[in-house]
Amino acid sequence: MLDFTWNMFKETGSIDMYLLFKEIQIDHHGPVEEVAEDLADVNFPIS
Predict the structure, then answer these.
(1) Exposed, middle or buried: residue 15 (CB in 10 Å: 0-12, 13-18, 19+)?
(2) What is the pTM for the complete model shown?
(3) Cβ neighbours of residue 17 closer than 8 Å, sequence gap 6 or more
């Protein structure tokens, strides 16, 4: 669904398609800040 809305936005330039894309992206992946916080909380050694 994410690919479809992105491709429709690219083809049409529709702001509604872009907003739908962003809404689906956030629902699927969560807000960027939450992802960054989750990655920052991971504890593993870096070698």
Answers:
(1) exposed
(2) 0.55
(3) 5, 8, 9
